[in-house]
Design brief:
29% of the residues lie in helices and 15% in strands. It is built from 3 helices and 5 strands. The longest helix is centred in the last third of the chain and has 13 residues. Bound molecules: zinc ion (2 copies).
Length: 114
């Protein structure tokens, strides 16, 4: 079943940098690359030209802003029966419609017609 956290993409917004990929100190224009989502390096630059120069030389690599989804381990899919069935039960209790994909799994794997 498709992971409900990342909606199947396998990636979630980096909570460390809130998806920006870096942190910036507005006082002195210091950039900190977010390590959590793949960045590296820190740079302190006191003028706009020196920031641009450093950026063009690739001295700081900003993070992507995305990290691997921990619930599905980046696959975008959940194979855990327990989690799957819980989510179905929850949906049924809340009288929500099941996705076609979920109906297919119930039908094929559990011989259930809902
Ligand atoms: Zn996921
Ligand atoms: Zn990040």
């Amino acid at each position: 079943m498709v992971c409900d956290i990342c909606k199947g993409s396998g990636k979630v917004v980096c909570s460390n940098c809130e998806g920006k990929g870096y942190f910036m100190d507005r006082m002195d224009y210091t950039y900190y690359a977010c390590l959590a989502c793949g960045g590296s390096g820190t740079g302190s630059y006191y003028s706009i030209p020196s920031i641009l120069k450093a950026a063009s030389k690739g001295e700081i690599k900003f993070g992507s802003g995305w990290v691997k989804c921990s619930k599905c381990n980046g696959t975008g899919l959940l194979s855990n029966d327990y989690e799957f069935l819980l989510s179905i039960i929850k949906k049924l209790l809340e009288k929500k419609e099941l996705l076609q994909e979920e109906i297919n799994i119930l039908r094929n794997k559990y011989n259930l017609m809902l």
